[in-house]
Amino acid sequence: MQAKRVVFPHRLLPALLVAPQLAVTAVFFLWPAAEALWQSTLREDAFGLKSTFVGLANFRDLFADPDYLVVIGTTLVFSFAVAGLSLALGLAAAALADRARKGALLYQTLFVWPYAVAPAVAGVIFLYLFEPSLGPLARAVGPAWNHKLIGWQALSMVVMAASWKQVAYDFLFFLAALQSIPRSLMEAAEIDAAGPFRRFFTVSLPLIAPTGFFLLVVNLIYAFFETFGVIHATTLGGPGLSTTTMVFRVFRDGFIDQRLGASAAESVVLLLVVAALTVVQFRFVERKVHY
Amino acid sequence: MPPRANLRAIALHAALILGAAALAVPIWLAFVAATRASADFVAGDVGWLPGPHGFANFWTVLAAGDSADGLPPAWPMLLTTLVVALLIALGKIAVSLPAAFAVTYFRFPFRSLAFWTIFLTLMLPVEVRIVPTFQVVADLGLLNSWAGLSLPLIASATATFLFRQTFMSVPDELTEAARIDAAGPLRFFFDVLLPLSRTNVAALFVILFIYGWNQYLWPLMVTTEPRFYTIVVGIQRLALAADEGTAVWHYVMATAILALVPPVAVVVGMRKLFVRGLVETEK
Fold first, then answer.
1. Which end of chain B is more exposed for a tag (fewer CB within 10 A), N or C?
2. CB hemisphere CA count around A102 (13 angstroms)
């Protein structure tokens, strides 16, 4: 990380300038993270009176717990479904908007606003739309719809609510990527008599693939962490475990069931997941900078 | 234009408008529900067109609340949400600007350490460290307080990186000129850097305001007193009542509309800044 060539000679002032940022980071990020690491090695007795050091036993129990394996599976299905759905729809809308010569800005507005809707609010709206006895969309599906009892329907409902909002984001980045493709390339393809579909799949798509990969990582991070609101405001992880994601389980174990050791171990697992995703994302950014 | 190309353009715009309409269907149906009466839900004929109770419902939700179903009036919640969103957005900018200035324009001991510490926060979303952060905030006695609501969300590597990038693109000649004129670093910061980064600050503010407005998990945990309820948290408590069979979906949907109109208005009204902010923060 480099600094400016021309810098100011002071030594105390910069320390004062970074102090607020570092203080907040230390108190609300580093301390809790260290606490989570420490707590993941402790176990409380049945009354929560004293805790003993148990080493990695919490982690061993976690991965021996069939429920947790189900939760991991649900999280993966949920995250890839959300990422896949919003990437596909965002790309389709962006490809169309890119070809519209008139009204491009209007379409940008028309597709981008759902980004501003809170995940929890989107969740509550979809909860109404799919309410089995009176929701307009549930009635359109018919009496076969009951997400309160049928797990895969509950999962599809939260996937739809979470993706609906994310389409906007993917649309915006895909559109920017498509618009940065040099016109001359497309014209060359046109002269070679490639039709619009052929042009899209053989010229545009390979060129925007890096954007797609970047969006995949961002979407996965979104689906892993920011969709808590969608799930908490609608299904509360149910029916059964069908919509319990790893973040939701941290919340349930830590706050509702008061299993602090287990919850801390789950936090550490998530920490590793987010660290891995961030590293992947940064390696990608580096590559983007280099060429 | 030859007729075939014309036809193609029409099909293209039709597809786009259809897609945009499909995206808006959930909000339209929520709005329709917000204009209906309780009886419509019991009878099961809400339909796709608005009813005549819109004003009454929004007025009830905003001003009176629905105490029978545990719903406080929405306007104090809207106000709380606005304060929280502003505290988070302005707070993030206020701690990130000087931090970015320090790591860009000075060489001081532990500069790399400071930089990497800030970088680490990228990897710790609040959802991951939620239980221990809650304990820390509880130990500090900050539950049910403005500080407790906003401080843990204020540190942000993204904002610091963005400002650093902006500063790096400011020509060194300006710094040299300032030094020749014997302007100190603070004078330089306020008179040269800040005016130059105005657009970036504004773009970031739009993004952070939406981020703050839409916070859910954290306010849910640190607030138990109704006067600190944000609208996004309040709506969940109401939706639970509706989902358990009380016919209050018209109030729930009216609250949902109230919760989403301000951030959506910000995005639509400041589209250019919003797009810029979103693209810049992800670089």
1. N
2. 7
